[in-house]
Amino acid sequence: MRAASEEISREFKTLVDSQDLDSLKHSQNLILGRLQDSNAVLSHFNDYSENCFSEVSADFTKNTRLLRSMKSDLDYIFQKLRSLKGKIVATYPDAFPDHSMIETLDQRPDLELPR
To answer: What residues does the KxDL domain cover (predicted)?
Structure first.
């Protein structure tokens, strides 16, 4: 068995030129080096991105809460304005020429509707 495996390995060696094998090893080493460099660059970028995200995350959360609070405040203000306009129209019917004027005064877009 051992003699047969040695004979097969000798035959394989004669099939392939040693210069081709050396060239193939050299190419594989170059590719390995490039992949290791790329992996190092990507690891550095991931660390940098993680640091940036951790710095910005708190501000983003705070600003999101602020915007939601502002939206609810504006909704309340516009609700009160509509109520006041309705009372003015009820008390003084001639304050606005017609009911279409009330609709034109409130042209605030509905932000809840998808576009």
So the answer is: 12-96
